[in-house]
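Subgroup meeting minutes
Present: P.N., E.W., G.H.
Scribe: E.W.

1. P.N. recapped why we're keeping a running log of single-chain structure predictions: easier to compare across weeks, and new members can see raw inputs and outputs side by side.
2. G.H. added today's entry (480 aa).
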Amino acid sequence: MKETQILEAAHRAWMRMDTLRSRRTRQRRYTYGDQWGDPVPDRKRRRMITEGERVAQDGRAPLTNNLIRRLVKSVVGRFRQETLRGAAGDGTDPNAGVDPAVRRLNRLDELDARTLEEFLISGMAIHYVSAERRPGGAGVWVDTVSPERFFVNALSDPRCNDMEIAGRLLDMSLAEVVMRFSRGDGARARELRRLYSGIAGEPPAEISTGFAPAPASFFTAPEGRCRVIEVWTLECRSLLQVHDYADATYRLVPLSDEPLVAKEATRRRRRHQPPLHTAPLMRTAWHGRFLAPDGTLLSECESPFPGGEPPFVVKFYPLIDGEVHSLVEDVIDQQRYVNRLITLMDHMMGTAAKGVLLYPISCKPRGMMWADIQERWADPGGIIPYNHQVNGAMPQQIVTPMTDIGARDMLQTQIKLFEDVSGVGQALMGKSISTAVGADRYESEIRNAAASISDLTETFRDFLATRNARVSALLPVNKF
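Output recorded in log:
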């Protein structure tokens, strides 16, 4: 398959995920407090403005009571508690079988917590597993991949076994591109510099302290960076089966390694050592390519895993007929209504009369200023002389009773609905704890409360199990 065709297929896969990325951006906004940013028409329906601007035009202040953030923190906190108890030996640690060195190198407990937060927000969890040398050391590395930079073909299998193309967008400095893809060849290094000649090779004079924005374009990187597109495709490849009688192992190696295997087999025969048996094999395996935005092939590689799997570990939830829906998406409507109710109640309280003094002009004493009357009225024990009228007019203070027309009850109902829809109730958030309730009873209430989100959490644990199996597959060093 030509590189230009692969790049076109990758671009189509990227474009098909545009709806998912837009929904994730909205769900991320709601999670972190920006809950009045949805576009709505203005009062005259001439242009689109944000919902917060529309509320401000109506003379109200848009208020936010962020229940979604509390929900996400509660689920992530519960997961971390179970991980800590699992590390103590109760069997709930999802990374119990991972090599301790790999776990420390990648700080997997922290990485998994942040991935779960992404999973709750977007319904997507993506990790990239590789074996390479980095500044932190040589070994098996696990990286999170943002859905903003990931693309994959249309999926329908909840296990994501129907992937045929997957990849990610990388932004590198020009020096890193040369280091990674020149392979120490000076001529190739000059060609790479020419290829990315439009990119500033020197660091900018003023380095921004903000975080890089999410990629809005498939082909274009932020200023001063080089866009590299990593694409993995499922292809039919010629491999070599190697059965090593010395350690009773079976490996699949690229056909290009056949001379090395044959040399090792000859050496063993001469020394009367356990032999190597080889046989060719045609099978489907994942093949990776690093492409420039114009389709130039920078580098390519075979799958590093014995089973020919891709380096991406992917989990979409729930993936029924290809649909992706997150926990946060389920409660956005309740969150919006809660915000509207507290904004309405605040507006009603702001417009109600609170101690307004009605002072008839005819009762005002001669020579006394209004400021003096106001000061004496607010002074405990103050005396204000006034001219009593025959018609009964006299000063009076008005306090309007706060009639919320049921807004308080509606607010409590929406908060209760928020907990019912999400499945994260009071017990799971550590509330409603009574001293009369024993520890066993409390743990039982938590387990019952967690049952409503167990499908979500067990799906994430299945993702971690697949990731850990992929990590373990890279641990044995290929001796050829």
